[in-house]
Amino acid sequence: MAFPPTDQKSAYNFEAVRKRIATQAQDYFEPQLIEMGFEKTKIEAQSLQELRQNLDSINEAIKHPESFGTLGFSISAATGTVYITQSKSDALFEIGILPLLLERKKLILERIRLLSSNEKIKTIQDLINHVEDEEIKRNLEKEVKDLKNESQGLREQTREVELEQNNERTKTQTELARLNVELFERKTKVWFSLLERESASTIIGGILLLIIILAQVGSIFTKTTIPDIFNNAFLIKLGYFFGQSTNK
C-alpha cells in the first residue's frame, strides 16, 4: 500500500502521512491484539477483576514488544510515495506494536479507575446507611483512604503511559523527518543526474520548443496568426535538436 509523497513545506501533509502510517500499523497488529484480549470493545465490557488480569497481561507484553514483529516502510525514488515493504533490507524505518500496547494499557487503567471508584463509593454508601458504631466508621475511613490511594496510583500509571506514548510519537516523527530529508536528497540526485547528461542550453531549449509548439496548437483552435518570429524560432530549435542528435 502506498501513501502520497511527503512535503517538507507542509506540516499538514507531514501529519497526514503520520496518521496514515499509524492507521496501517493498527490494521496490521490488530489481529494480535484481539488474540491477546486487548480489543477495545472487549476492554470496555470487562469487569474490574478481568481488567486487573488484563493489566498484568499487557504489562508483560510491553516488556517484549519486539516479539510481535515490525511493519516496515520504504519510499519510492521515482514517485516519492511511502509504501509498506516486507523486506527488512528495503525498509527505511519500522514501526512496532508498542504504541498500540500503550494505548490499550491507558484504556485499561482508565476503566479500572472508573469501575473501582464506583464500586468503592457504593460500598461506602452501604456502610453509611447502616453505621451504628465506631468500628464501622473506621471502616468507612479506611475505604475512603484506599479509594484515594488507588485512584492516585492509577493516575500515576496513566501519566507514565502518556510519557511513553509521547516518546514513541517523537521517535516516529523523527523517522518521518529523516524520510523527508532522504526524499529531498533522492529528488536532488535525479535532477543533478539529468543536468549531468544534458547541458543547460539543451534543457532550456526543450522548454522553449514546448512553449512554441503549444502556441502553434493554440493558434489552430483560436484561429489566430502566430508571428513569424515564433515560426522562425521553431525551425531554429528543431535544427538545433537535430544537430545535437547527429553529433551524438
Automatic annotation (TrEMBL):
Keywords of the record: Membrane, Transmembrane, Transmembrane helix
Feature: compositional bias, Basic and acidic residues: 156-169
Membrane-spanning ranges: 203-221
Segments of this protein annotated with the region Disordered: 149-169
Protein name (record): Uncharacterized protein
